């Protein structure tokens, strides 16, 4: 399992997930840079993603939805704020209506994904910062740790293929 550590800090308003992959940084970068690869790992296995728009550059936007086992759809978006290919990128991640209009009733987070060479592979650090402790607690209660861990743990199979 790639996920080696998960920490949330309600005082610092952060959720940090660390994962190790047996692939070079450039290969891990491609998982996020290619929308077809991203679809295979964004969302847990029972909620596969469909990436509708993918513009991974500063000022760009990624729109996606996940489809649940009952056919229910849940949309989200990234507003890309920084890109340092292949070492990482930063973005706002939020929930959206099915037309990709941001849903202000659900938390949005500022995220920094960093990929560094480590022990012959890549260490990925996924940092999310929330506007308030209540909003961080809300996504924790929604199962973000479990869902994100299941999603990230799918990356190994993709890297091996």
UniProtKB/TrEMBL annotation:
<protein>
    <submittedName>
        <fullName>Activator of HSP90 ATPase</fullName>
    </submittedName>
</protein>
<feature type="domain" description="Activator of Hsp90 ATPase homologue 1/2-like C-terminal">
    <location>
        <begin position="22"/>
        <end position="159"/>
    </location>
</feature>
<comment type="similarity">
    <text>Belongs to the AHA1 family.</text>
</comment>
<dbReference type="InterPro" id="IPR013538">
    <property type="entry name" value="ASHA1/2-like_C"/>
</dbReference>
<dbReference type="InterPro" id="IPR023393">
    <property type="entry name" value="START-like_dom_sf"/>
</dbReference>
<dbReference type="Pfam" id="PF08327">
    <property type="entry name" value="AHSA1"/>
</dbReference>
């Amino acid at each position: 399992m790639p996920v080696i550590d998960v920490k949330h800090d309600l005082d610092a308003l952060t959720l940090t997930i660390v994962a190790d992959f047996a692939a070079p940084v450039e290969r891990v970068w491609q998982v996020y840079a290619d929308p077809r690869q991203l679809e295979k790992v964004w969302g847990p296995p029972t909620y596969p993603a469909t990436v509708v728009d993918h513009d991974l550059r500063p000022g760009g936007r990624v729109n996606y939805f996940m489809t649940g086992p009952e056919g229910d759809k849940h949309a989200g978006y990234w507003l890309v704020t920084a890109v340092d290919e292949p070492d990482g990128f930063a973005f706002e991640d939020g929930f959206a209506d099915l037309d990709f209009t941001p849903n202000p009733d659900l938390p949005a987070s500022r995220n920094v994904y960093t990929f560094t060479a480590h022990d012959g592979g890549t260490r990925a650090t996924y940092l999310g910062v929330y506007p308030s402790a209540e909003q961080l607690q809300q996504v924790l209660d929604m199962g973000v740790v479990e869902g994100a861990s299941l999603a990230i743990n799918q990356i190994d199979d993709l890297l091996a293929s």
